[in-house]
Amino acid sequence: MTDAVDIRDIGGLTVMRVFCSAGHASDILQAIREKLAGTESGKIVLILQDLSRIDVSFSDFLLSLDEVLESVQKPLLVFDESGFFESLLELEAAERPYALSRSAAKALATAMGMVEKRKQKTGPLEKPRILVVEDDPETLQFLVDLLESEDRFEIRTAANGFEGGLIIPTFKPHVILLDIMFPDIDGREVCRLLRENPELGNPWVIAVTALSQDRDVDEIMGSGADDYLGKPFRIDTLLEKIDNFIGEKRA
């Protein structure tokens, strides 16, 4: 039942993604227990995917899951996949909040005094932070090499929309270079989630994509992207677009 739980280390966090439709609830709970017990990280994110497709009653599963979590003496955050963007904002201050949706996570953390408004500190000596979200390894490496050669940016990368969503709350990028077509979370959905959650820093988003039809571009911009750059692109055009946003504040 090990395929029910996927574990990744992202940004110093241990992220455990649980596929609730991968088997019987009892097997999934046992897999969660074993994986948690074998994890040394102090900060664990447990994401419940396809929670609505669990093969037992919702209430029974939650009661059993709570027993598993009570047996693990580690700081962790639990939520369903639809709420991971907002819930991650509470990770640093949280000891062990337990919620199953975006609204529930926020309400619980607020009620327990766990949420602290964190102001983004931006000074004149700080390098602009750029997050590159791209699933093609060659394109990703090209963009990283290009930006590093400028020697004036702090750069982080993500291979898909899901990983990008996990990095954004703690990295707080000024600019995101965002591919659109991903197998997990579409880039347009990433844009919508960013615009729905101003606590994520409201970064500038440049969509870098092979999609070139007018309707595609209109949809990308309508989802919340600030600019569009079609592949293949000129290096000077990309740098010019980035420079247009660096240091600019939204009205």
Overview of this protein structure:
This protein has 251 residues and is of the alpha/beta class. The protein folds into two domains: 2-111, Transcription Regulator spoIIAA, CATH 3.30.750; 129-245, Response regulator (Rossmann fold). The protein has nine helices and nine strands. The strands form two sheets. A five-stranded parallel β-sheet has the order 6-5-7-8-9, with helices on both faces. A four-stranded mixed β-sheet has the order 1-2-3-4, with helices on both faces. Helix 1 packs parallel to helix 2 (58-70). The radius of gyration is 19 Å and the shape is elongated.
Quickly list its features.
9 strands, Rossmann fold, Transcription Regulator spoIIAA
Describe the secondary-structure layout.
Elements: E1 5-10, E2 13-19, H1 25-37, E3 44-49, H2 58-70, E4 76-80, H3 84-87, H4 102-111, E5 129-133, H5 137-150, E6 154-158, H6 161-171, E7 175-178, H7 187-196, E8 204-209, H8 214-222, E9 227-230, H9 235-245
Parallel strand pairs: 2-3, 3-4, 5-6, 5-7, 7-8, 8-9
Antiparallel strand pairs: 1-2
Indicate the CATH class of the largest domain: Alpha Beta
What structural class is derived from the secondary structure elements? alpha/beta
Q: Using DSSP, what is the number of strands? A: 9
Label the CATH architecture of the largest domain.
3-Layer(aba) Sandwich
Summarize the structure.
This protein has 251 residues and is an alpha/beta fold.
